[in-house]
Amino acid sequence: MDARAGIDVETAIAACAAGDRSALRALYDREAAQMLGVALRILKRRALAEDAVQDAFLRIWSAAASFDGTAGQGRGWIYAILRNRALNMLRGEARVDLVDDVEPLGLEDPQESPEAMVARMSDASALKRCLETLDAARRRVILLAYTDGLSQGEIAGRLGLPLGTVKAWTRRSLLALRECMG
């Protein structure tokens, strides 16, 4: 047992595997602050680090039954999940470089809607042409991320959508934009 939070990590993981949500909460209370620090060192952006920690806890919950205490300590296992998630986010961000087309978004008015920004783009802009191939909801998700700098969690909150939906739309839309721009 650890005196900090009164719960042993391995015990908490086993309880998570049995469906005990309070064990996940106890594990979160015990480790989340340190996990956020680790994610911040890797990702350098708080919003991304928070997303990585949230994703790690979702993975811990869903994969708890696969934890093998004979192969290592529980704390090492949860930090490996966090590290892998953060590195995947870094790799994904490095791959997602929409364009060299700098003209497009011309952020003159911070209150301007993402749709108005697209409308202002030059008709010859490849980015405008490609953005217009996306349906309106998915285009809005991409524009909120790249014009307002919102994290996927913030976009989900603003639009009232599940985080998983925002993540899926972002990934698919970026793939479609990459193909269109290529």
Word description of this protein:
With 182 residues, the chain is mostly helical. The protein has two domains: 9-95, RNA polymerase sigma factor, region 2, helix turn helix motif (Rna Polymerase Sigma Factor, Chain: A); 114-181, Winged helix-like DNA-binding domain superfamily/Winged helix DNA-binding domain (Arc Repressor Mutant, subunit A). 68% of the residues lie in helices and 0% in strands. It has nine helices and no strands. The chain has helices at 9-17, 21-43, 46-63, 74-95, 114-120, 126-131, 136-147, 152-159, 163-181. The longest helix is centred in the first third of the chain and has 23 residues, at 21-43. The chain starts with 8 loop residues before the first helix and ends with a helix.
Keywords summarizing the entry:
182 residues, mainly alpha, Rna Polymerase Sigma Factor, Chain: A, Arc Repressor Mutant, subunit A, 2 domains, 9 helices, 68% helix, disordered N terminus
Short description:
By secondary structure, this protein is mainly α. Helices cover 68% and strands 0% of the residues.
Q: At the third CATH level, what is the topology name of the largest domain?
A: Rna Polymerase Sigma Factor, Chain: A
Radius of gyration: 20 Å
Q: Helical amount among residues, as a percent range?
A: 55-70%
The CATH level-2 architecture of the largest domain is identified as Orthogonal Bundle
Question: Shape, please?
Answer: elongated
Unreliable residue stretches: 1-5, 94-110
Q: Number of helical runs?
A: 9
Count of beta strands: 0
Average pLDDT for all residues: 80
Please summarize the sheet with the most strands. Answer: none
CATH H-level superfamily of the largest domain: RNA polymerase sigma factor, region 2, helix turn helix motif
Integer count of domains: 2
Question: What fraction strand?
Answer: under 5%
Look at the helices and sheets and give the structural class.
mainly alpha
Q: List SSEs in N-to-C order.
A: HHHHHHHHH
CATH class of the largest domain: Mainly Alpha
Separation of the first and last Cα atoms: 55 Å
